Amino acid sequence: AVALVENLIYGATIEQAAAGRLGARMAEAASLADLADLTFTAMTARLKAATAEGIRLLTERAALTDEGPEMLAALPPLADAVRYGRARAVDGAQLAALFERIAVQGALALPHACRALDAEAAALRGAQLCAADAALRLIGENATLTPWQDALERVVDDTQATALLAGTAARLLYESEAMASEAAVALLSRRLSPATPAPEAAAFFAGFFEGAGQRLLFDDGLRGALDTWLTGLDPETFTEHLPLFRRVFSGLDKTERRRLLDTLLGRRGALEGFVPAPDAEVLWARHVERLTPILSRGDAHG
Predict the structure, then answer these.
(1) Would you call 161 helix, strand, or coil by DSSP?
(2) C-alpha 23: how far from its chain's center?
(3) 90 phi/psi in degrees, rounded to 5
(4) Is the separation of the CB atoms in 62 and 32 below 8 Å?
(5) Rounded to whole angstroms, how far apart are CA atoms 111 and 154?
(6) What is the pTM of this model?
(7) 227-259 residue pLDDT tens
């Protein structure tokens, strides 16, 4: 009862109070990302007045900021809001235009935002890059993807960019197929060459492979470039960076590690020796017939 009375200052009904309180929090939001989160909350709660206020504040704040990191952090919640708006036909066009504007501004500011960072700041910025990239690909508009890919390429080529972020940018380009396998191999060979200081090479390695080491199972060129670098390290340098190597390869599960080891040792792989059963086609058809209703929730016991 006390809480209800306290919130009467925001409105006489629950809807009015919720919209009023959200509006107050929006006015106090510390960042574009917080403001975008609150706007998305207003949209999902179907609070039209609060949603309109959130979009207005987002538009004003985006026009006044030139901080690359702040704009990058705002893209994931904005992407959620754009998708929700399109699905519900709520403020879709205005939000999409705002998302495009912030995405382009963030792309222009990206190269400068990736320079002269210590290890902790670089790790945080790398997480922002990955989240922003996922948000942009979620929306999938060429108007935002093209400037973003151009910005990632500039980070990769920027001699002042922090090595970890250059590696992360290269990975995102490679995963999106904006960078061909041959170009990625050439880049790795250059960035992991003996001419590159070991700490810088290790940071680039971490940015390119951390959390995605399974690509080594499928790309012979990448695997070869990495193998050449690792086997060329002196024992002291290898030991120094061993925690990093363990962290990168910890993303592989037991089966993937075994497959990678089999590949490196020239073995054919974990499935060697297995052959289809004589009646595999009949058994598979029955298996699919049983699985289909379960996966579509049509089975009584699903």
Answers:
(1) strand
(2) 30
(3) -120, 110
(4) yes
(5) 6
(6) 0.75
(7) 888 888 888 888 888 888 888 777 777 887 788
Q: How confident is the model at residue 298 (pLDDT cuts 50, 70, 90)?
A: very low
Structure tokens at 220: 């012979």
**Nearest alpha-carbon partner for 107 in 66, 137, 147:** 147
Are the C-beta atoms of 74 and 82 separated by less than 8 Å?
Answer: no
DSSP 302: -
d(CA 239, CA 65): 44
* In the chain, beta strands by DSSP E: none
pLDDT digits (tens, 9 = 90+) for 128-158: 999 999 999 988 878 788 999 999 999 999 9
Tokens of 136: 């942009």
Per-residue DSSP letters for 89-121?
A: TSSHHHHHHHHHHHHHHHHHHHHHHTBS--HHH
For residues 15-35, give the mean pLDDT.
Answer: 91
CA–CA distance, 93 with 109 (Å, rounded to integer): 25
Model confidence pLDDT, tens digit, residues 166-176: 999 999 999 88
Amino acid at position 54, single letter: G
**Spatial separation of the C-alpha atoms in residues 194 and 228, rounded to whole Å:** 10
Phi, psi angle pair for 267, to nearest 5°: -85, 160
